[in-house]
Predict the 3D structure of the following.
Amino acid sequence: MATFEYRQAQEIRDSFTRNGCRYLFIGKSGAILLGFPDTTQDADLFVEKSPANGQALVAALRELGFNLTNQQAGEIERGKDFVQLKNGPFDLDLVFAPDGIERFEDAWRRRVEVDGFRVCSIDDIIASKVASNRQKDRESLPRLMSFREYLAGKTKGPNAS
Amino acid sequence: MEDPNAPKPIPKEWLEEFEAASRRPLEQRMRYAFIRTYKPVLDDAPYRSFDTMEEYRRWCEENLPDWLGYGRG
């Protein structure tokens, strides 16, 4: 599998938008879209769990070139909590119920849009990593928290008290 | 007493990296960010699904090498 590229992120954005699929980039791929300088391998998407969104998601994934069997499509439409796809042009993790975030609607309200990409807020990205408590997340948290401070400082501007 | 929730100062080196990244266009940032290395077991199936996150986390702990970092604390 080749490295995930900007062009492929654009294809996700465009295909998901065309199909009316509600999604948010989450995890380190989301943080990178927000400006976080670090490395990662996969794109992670937090996807709304609903029948209509599941159908839109399957349509978008097939449009992008993922080879889904009918059984796999059914699982995605029903919304399993976690689906790992390595049967398409790039690797993609679909998370329907990330640790540390109560409801998709809440994260959607707090989302950030970057060049049309819908991205979880840095607070939600950090909350999900804190809650999942994996070794690799614990290692990245101090830097992510510093990045949150950096973003907060930028929002306030240089003259803020 | 020190507030444990108070923001900590950003290490100088990180601050410089954040500022440098903010000057780069998104496309360039993403080119630097996404890398590809083989992850044993994890990369060996074209599709996996889990009913719950707990099931997924447990599967990672039972099947992936520790050094990949998917184990919980």
About this structure: Chain B has one domain: 12-68. Chain B has three helices and one strand. Residues 12-68 of chain B form one domain.
